[in-house]
Amino acid sequence: MRSELIFQTPYWFIIFCVLAGLAYAWLLYQPQPAWGKKLNYALAAVRGIVVALICFLLLSPLVRRSQTSVDKAKIVFAIDNSESVGKYGEAAMELVRAASRELNDSGFEVSIESLGGAGKNVDSIAFNQNSTNLAGLLQTVRTNFEGRNVTDVVLLSDGIVNQGISPTYNRYPFRINALAVGDSVPKLDIRIKDVVSNRIAYLGNEFPVRAEVGANGLQGKSTTITLKQNGRVIQSQPVVIDRAEYFKAFDFKTSSAQKGVQHYTIELGAVSGETSGRNNRKDVYIDIIDGRQKVLLMALAPHPDIKSIRSVIEANDNYELDINILSIANNPPANTKPYDLVILHQIPNVLGLGNAQVRKFLDAKMPLFFILGNQSAVPLASSLNRSLFINVAANNQVDKVTARFNPAFSQLNLDAESLKLLERLPPLSVPFGEYNISSGTETILFQKVGTLNTNKPLLVLNTNGDQKTAVLAGEGIWQWRQEEFAQTSKQEVVDNLFQKLIQVLSVKEDRRKFRVYPISNEFEAGEQVAFQTEVYNDIYEPIFGQEVKLELVDEKGKSKQFTYTHSKETPRFNVSGLADGVYRYAASTIMKGKEERVSGQFVIRNADLELSNTTADFGMLRDLARRSGGTFMTPASLQQFIQKLKNDRPADRLDSTEDMVELIYLKWLFFLIVILLGAEWGLRKYHGGY
Fold first, then answer.
1. Residue 363: how many CB atoms within 10 A of its CB?
2. Which segments cross the bilayer (predicted)?
3. What are phi and psi of 54, to 5 degrees?
């Protein structure tokens, strides 16, 4: 550490500080004191020094401090402690320990990094990681030692990468020296390399499962591949290995009549001569949902709009559509059926068909989408929809209007630029009259009469309150779709508008006051399962302090119970030590004397990525070492590499830091002044002064 005093004023100003101290001391201690002359001179000196020091500090002098430290050359051993390295890595670790000690004795700083931060000490590393992300491991080294004097990284690995990108795509600020372990000769083995399937399938629907099978050196042999569920064989196919490097994809199709996450298994029969049978099986978890939202399209009479609306809805597999045309069969559906959305085309109407049913839909709080037409009973529709009120002319006159998008409407995230197309589409027939919207209703489309823009709403949406409603004040959607196709050869703009409108109307809002759910639907084996807890009062403000009981049940019916208190500091509850499989959970708490319960499920996957490929990739390690300027070596040549490092030892780095601070901010000066003044005051008081 080196310090230097810098003046911001002429240095000869110090004379005035000294004179001020002398003058103050002379004036204060000039009278004949009640104590001896020596003590008087000492007290005067203390007072003079303090006053001179304070005056000096008022000149704002600066202190420039510089410090130089030695950053030794650092060597980092990056250990690929995955399962595929296994016994080869364990055998090489004794050499790594010896090399680490030797480098430390030679003045190097040696550090250890491993996959997943599993160990910072050579003796604590176990080769049990179920995936290999070498790019992530090297990035961790770069981050942890950023700005440090890291010259070389020794990467102990077999070169197998099954997660993340290949490390050869990145550039690193240090040399990577690859210490290659493992067996680069392909083993006699057959394995399931991967399984491709949908994560979600619908109840009763057929869905595909594809298994990719690879084999090495087993040509001429055969086995079977089987799709199972809960031990029950669903389908089997023969596997004939007709070449040394074998690869083939096998497609299965199945369905499920049970809701929830279903556990399927792909299994390969054993083949004589294969190295391992652990990679002959893979688990598949598919969430079977009865999640299609049910939509009812109820219309007064056949109309081209009905087919257009049907095309828009059925383009999305998440919807199940029922159509009821009252003039053909006057049998309105029972209001007990849980529809997520009811679309009413020209209902209520002047003929009275279906009008009573609308009131039942309103009482059931079902979302409603009113589409008005020339047979609509407009005054009754205005009173029932509670969003758009139309005061029609006495002669039931209609108007021809085109649509203009409201750029202020943002709830559906629509593209205003593409919706300008609506202004070029054929006009709709709408009731002529005075239009008003209720509080909370938003206008999506305005009416445009010829070239005149109006503020009359054409399409409105209200999502406030207990019931969501939308109103389209005219008929003729089918013409819009036809004309858009004629102009653009597509039907995207109109369809996208109504698909998003139907989606926002039919989506169910979660109004529960007690919610417990895992932060993810899937977790890796060994990973903690975190449950998020939310508790709300009557006005949906978060509350805390609730005791929550949580029960987990695995596929075998074995149950585990937990109890925890929900708090603001710990809104999550973590569970560890769960084996792979499907788990169902149920959580409960007492609110206002009533038990609230929630339930769900999650999956813990054992990916076993390390088993999909066990053949070491020394070519990748050579390329990585070459690109970074490092060395490719085997355990036998590690000692030679260490000796080379010692002989060509990189220079230590001198790191210098410098800062500048005003002298008045140094705390020790404050305490020095206080101590001097306190000592002076104490001596004067003791000898009868003051």
1. 10
2. 12-29, 41-63, 663-683
3. -65, -45
What's the rounded Cα separation, in Å, for the pair 515 and 517? 7
149 vs 73, 74, 274, 482, 630, CA distance in Å?
5, 6, 48, 69, 16
CB proximity list for 112: less than 8 A, separation 6 or greater: 76, 77, 79, 100, 119, 120, 121, 122, 125
- The residues near 183 (Cβ < 8 Å, ≥ 6 apart) are 88, 614, 615, 616
Q: Which tens digits make up the pLDDT trace of 235-265?
A: 999 999 999 889 999 999 998 888 888 889 9
The encoded tokens of residue 69 equal 């430290």
DSSP states along 243-280: SSEEEEEEEEEE--SS-EEEEEEEEEPP-TT-S-SGGG
Q: Which of 136, 173, 167 is nearest to 153 (CA)?
A: 173
22-25 CB contacts, 8 Å cutoff, 24+ apart = 22/48, 22/52, 24/48, 24/51, 25/51
pLDDT at 593 over 80: yes
Give the integer Cα–Cα distance in Å for 665 and 53.
Answer: 14
How far is the C-alpha of 294 from the C-alpha of 505, rounded, in Å?
12
CA distance 509 to 505: 10
Q: Tokens 């409960």: give the residue.
A: 588
Where does 290-330 show beta strands of DSSP type E?
A: 293-299, 319-325
The percent helix, strand, coil of the chain (3-state, each to 5) is 30, 35, 35
Angle between helices 304-314 and 493-506 (to 10 degrees): 70
Q: Which two tokens stand for residue 48?
A: 């003079």
Taking each helix axis from N to C end, the angle separating 493-506 and 477-488, rounded to the nearest 10 degrees, works out to 140
| Both structure tokens of 498 | 């109504």
Instruction: Determine the straight-line distance between the first and last CA of the chain, rounded to whole angstroms.
Output: 44
CB 114 within 8 A of CB 79: yes
State the Cα–Cα distance between residues 25 and 50, nearest whole angstrom.
10
Structure tokens given for 519: 């932060």
* Tokens 């002429």 sit on residue: 10
d(CA 607, CA 163): 11
Question: What are the beta bridge partners of residue 392?
Answer: 433
Q: What angle do CA 115, 120, 124 make, to 5 degrees?
A: 90
pLDDT in tens, 69-107: 777 889 999 999 888 888 888 889 999 999 999 998 888
**Distance between CA atoms of 461 and 506, rounded to whole angstroms?**
12
Assess contact for 530 and 573: CB atoms under 8 A. Answer: yes
Structure letter (DSSP) for residue 169 = G
- Residue 176 gets which letter from DSSP? E
Q: Which residues contact 459 (CB under 8 A, 6 or more apart)?
A: 403, 443, 444, 445, 470, 471, 472, 473, 501
Please state, in angstroms and rounded to a whole number, the distance separating the CA atoms of residues 262 and 234. 13
For residue 353, what pLDDT is reported?
86
